[in-house]
């Protein structure tokens, strides 16, 4: 009986380890873990059948967008502090709130411009079929029109469409 329990515990530990343990959803560093940005985007590259040059454009765009989002996220702490200070005083300090809003507006505008530039570069790098496929994925979600390895049309959530 003890051997059965010990074996079951070892098997459970093996599954837990293979699934990544408590770290399975965490990414280390900006590159997104062990394989970096390209490893995380491999599915998309295979789906669009991209060339190495096109992949470089995608990775560069993703890096730029990640950096813009990081700047926005870094502003969260100072914003919370400024809001708390505006509320602590005898009178509400609306000038500090205007400063917070101005910083947010600048960061959001930077994010918008980065997104616009990145999408323009990706559009330029892709051929018409790849653009159509990427647009469908963005519009309908990542499972849209799944073709699997059989190469046919349709699939989960995509229904049948012109391929």
Question: What does this protein structure show overall?
Answer:
This is Periplasmic heavy metal sensor. InterPro entries: Metal_resist. The protein has a domain at 35-140. 67% of the residues lie in helices and 0% in strands. Residues 23-35 and 148-163 have low confidence and may be disordered. It has helices spanning 2-18, 36-40, 42-48, 52-74, 76-88, 94-125, 128-140. The chain is flat, with a radius of gyration of 23 Å. The chain has 163 residues and is mostly helical. The longest helix is centred in the C-terminal third of the chain and has 32 residues, at 94-125. Helix 4 runs antiparallel to helix 6 (94-125) and helix 5 (76-88) packs antiparallel against helix 6.
Helix tally equals 7
Order of helices and strands: HHHHHHH
Q: Please give the largest β-sheet.
A: none
Percent of residues in helical segments?
A: 55-70%
Amino-to-carboxy terminus distance = 58 Å
Low-confidence stretches: 23-35, 148-163
Number of distinct beta strands: 0
Question: How much of the polypeptide forms β-strand, as a percent range?
Answer: under 5%
SS-based class: mainly alpha
Radius of gyration, CA atoms, in whole angstroms: 23 Å
Dominant shape: flat
Overall average residue pLDDT: 76
What attributes does this structure have?
163 residues; mainly alpha; flat
At a glance:
With 163 residues, the chain is an all-alpha fold.
Chart the SSEs and their pairings.
Layout: H1 2-18, H2 36-40, H3 42-48, H4 52-74, H5 76-88, H6 94-125, H7 128-140
């Amino acid at each position: 009986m003890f051997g059965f329990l010990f074996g079951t515990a070892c098997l459970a530990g093996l599954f837990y380890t293979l699934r990544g343990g408590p770290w399975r959803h965490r990414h280390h560093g900006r590159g997104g873990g062990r394989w970096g940005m390209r490893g995380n985007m491999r599915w998309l590259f295979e789906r669009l059948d991209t060339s190495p040059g096109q992949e470089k454009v995608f990775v560069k765009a993703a890096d730029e967008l990640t950096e813009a989002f990081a700047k926005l996220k870094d502003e969260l702490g100072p914003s919370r502090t400024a809001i708390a200070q505006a509320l602590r005083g005898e009178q509400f300090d609306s000038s500090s709130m205007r400063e917070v809003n101005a910083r947010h507006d600048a960061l959001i505008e930077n994010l918008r411009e980065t997104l616009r530039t990145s999408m323009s570069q990706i559009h330029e790098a892709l051929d018409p079929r790849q653009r159509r496929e990427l647009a469908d994925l963005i519009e309908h979600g990542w499972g849209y029109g799944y073709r699997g390895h059989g190469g046919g049309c349709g699939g989960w959530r995509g229904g049948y469409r012109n391929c």
